[in-house]
Specification:
The structure is a homodimer of 204-residue chains. Chain A is mostly helical and 204 residues long. Chain A is built from ten helices and no strands. In chain A, helix 5 packs across helix 8 (120-148). Chain A is elongated and about 60 Å long. The structure holds a DNA duplex (30 and 30 nucleotides).
DNA sequence: ACAAACATACCAACTAGTCGGTATGTTGCG
DNA sequence: CGCAACATACCGACTAGTTGGTATGTTTGT
């Protein structure tokens, strides 16, 4: 919250949380787990955060700005054509699948599954984080739609959600199979579909 | 395991588990929660199951055969044409979205997200359950492919996984938004894609 | 000095699993 | 039939360990 950078310990806890929660889930992650992973003591943890839940809310916010930065800084984001940016996004997500499962899966997708009924604030934070990622995608999709398929029957936003659903579902299979092969296949299908929606040549 | 029906208490516990785990997740579900929901005592619980984990493994098996039965008995399954069966499946899944979120979401998708690194046996059970559901779909897709798109570049199995990923991802958004609208939109996109893969007329 | 940051010991609540015991059949046998 | 022997299902108090969170300091930078 302070204008300058986040405090070191605070930051280490938030980063530890993104790792540990993505591997064990929220309920199974103990505060002691987080302290051990972050290399801080429990006193420090509760000095910086009122509770485990408040911490995870901040972890979601931190995750949001972290991933925003990653996608904004990725090479594809500089492409001039919105359709190129969209397919560049898919390629970029495919490359991410070369990392380990806990590294490429989504903190919010994991969190919301087990908290949506029991932790309303966490659910809301995940909803808004995922929706704003979709909104970022939607801007490119809408620009591409106007350029390549202006008469399309679908909305850009619904395509943005579809893309994210394919990714989230792919993460579930990657976890179940401990392997990203299915996810890669899903991205190939998704690309083929988006190519069918946004014809190769601009409409004039 | 006995040839005759499962014991009453046993069955009530397994059914309670599918409800409670889909609502709260595995780690946050206590044995006492399950006993209360099933209307049995803790003594009875541990009489029938060695541990919470062994119980959830049986709950997954029970879920598998229960859902198998639902899809096998659904009207669409009787259609003569495999492509009709496939699209009937999508319609059927869309209808399921009229129920509440905990009712239409998938036990295995929920479970595997939080147990894939910590409970290998649960992960394996979810993998095999989800894969066998995909295999069921794959049979119809392959038959439809041979009939309507014999020269297709894609495999039936990869399409089966794609369908399931869209569904699983849609469940995540339904949880995040407490609303199935996004899931419906995703099913519409999925249908459009499958229609593009399996042209309307048989190839001869 | 003073406050923020950190450390340690601790606690009350909770959790999975245990254990001694009861109730209700079921089976075998004279 | 009558009765013992055994099996299954069930009960709920109890335990050993864990959990989120607190209380009470100590260190560190300014």
């Amino acid at each position: 919250m302070t204008p300058q950078a986040l405090h070191q310990s605070r930051l280490k806890i938030l980063e530890a949380a993104t790792d540990v929660v993505r591997t064990k889930g929220y309920a199974a992650t103990t505060v002691d787990d987080l302290c051990a992973a972050a290399g801080v003591t429990k006193g420090s943890f509760f000095h910086h955060f009122k509770s485990k839940e408040e911490m995870v809310l901040e972890a979601v916010a931190h995750w949001d700005s972290w991933t925003d930065g990653i996608f904004a800084a990725a090479p594809y984001a500089a492409a001039a054509d919105p359709r190129d940016r969209l397919f560049g996004y898919l390629d970029f997500r495919r490359e991410l699948l070369d990392h380990t499962v806990p590294q490429f899966t989504c903190l919010m997708g994991t969190l919301v599954q087990e908290t949506y009924e029991t932790h309303p604030a966490v659910r809301a934070a995940c909803d808004s984080g995922m929706s704003s990622h979709v909104a970022m995608l939607t801007r490119d999709i809408e620009a591409a739609r106007l350029k390549y398929a202006p008469d399309a029957a679908w909305t850009a936003e619904s395509v943005g959600y579809f893309i994210q659903a394919v990714l989230q579902g792919s993460f579930i299979f990657a976890k179940a199979k401990q392997d990203a092969a299915v996810a890669r296949g899903n991205l190939a299908h998704l690309r083929r579909y988006l190519e069918s929606l946004l014809g190769k040549e601009p409409v004039r």
